[in-house]
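Bumping with the actual sequence this time:
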Amino acid sequence: MGNMITEALSMGWMAMALLVGILIYFQVSITDPAAKKRATFKTFIGIIAAFLLFFAIANYKNNFYGENRLLPFSLVMITATSFVMAMYFTNLGALLKIGGVMFFVAAFLSGYGNWLPQVEGGFPPKEEKLDFSAMTPQQLADEGEKIIFGGIGKSTVQGEIGKGQCPLCHGFQKGFLSERAPNLFGIPERAEKERLTDPRYHKGEPDKRDTVEKESCPGCGTGTTVQEYIAESHSCPNCYVVAGFGLKGSNDRESQMPKIHKPPISLSLPELAAVDTWLYVREGKEPPSYEEIIKTYEKFIPEADRPKQQEDKPAGPASVLLADGSEPVDQIFAKAQCMVCHTIPGIPGALGTQGPKLEEGTNAPNRIKDPAYKGTAHSTPEYIMESVVSPSTYVVKGFPDNLMPKVFGQKLSAGALKKIVDYLSQVKAGAPPPKIS
């Protein structure tokens, strides 16, 4: 600031010396007293304007290249100088006033920009690489909780969803709503005492199963330990279906759960080991070692079917989106697992029967007219949006309430929701489905 003032003063004194010389010249050369008075007044105005101008220029230079945030002050001074000079140079008055207005607008915009929070640029933080095999059981469990729920400590909050997407169907705490799939509270003990001993499981005798799949892979057999049961249930959900949680109409012979190592979830074996470790640790039980868990998955997932091992990075925060809207609509439906419960014409694999068939171009207008409808939608797109973000507003007859998660308003971006709405609005009964985009 001191250098700025010194620089301004040096330039200002030079200008004022010139103007004082002009003032003396006016005093000598002008004989008319009235004209001499006007010349003297205008010369003093010129001296003030010159000082303001040079001070403003010095201040502007300092603020433009410096680190402080007083740039608007410089522009205000230049604005004042422009109007003062308009009084002095009357023949250029209009032009100077226009310039003053422009500087005033620039000062306002600059001031508003400086008022906004400033973000310091820099290099992005160094990406952390994970080595699951080197982690302690607690560290591995923490990573598992992040994969399931998106963050440590999020397991107690219903609706938190991470990369694994497990909470879309499963409850994990005692008393949590879990109507689409079994509640996994206490699963290590329940797997030993209930699942493996269930006659329908046919431990060691996969050929006796009546499910749509007998084994996770030819010759895999069945699980014989708690960890093998958990690994088998992830790799082959159709091999054993807990009573009451089968696909609607399948008589518990087919599961609505996707294979976790397959798209769209595609958890790697180390990630699955982290998830399983959390299932034990959160119960206060000692988990199998990382190597032991990996071996159980290698038993049920052939090498050719294992997700390609990529660099493992920390799981995203709980607020991470299931879909950001850049994906084609069929991938958005897959990432949100809509096909698990719904039949959606035109979407490959969307043959679920737990929820209504989504021919919303036909259904939505009729449901809005239903006397039982208590929502606020007045058009097909509004109804679809409402049914996605607030599914309990109107429950289609013949289907249970609370089956559909209520988290999609937070877990799908506005762009993803728009693609869903646009697609389903075009799906009409008896008509060809729209093109996927």
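The tokens above came from a reply further down the thread. Residues 132-305 form one domain.
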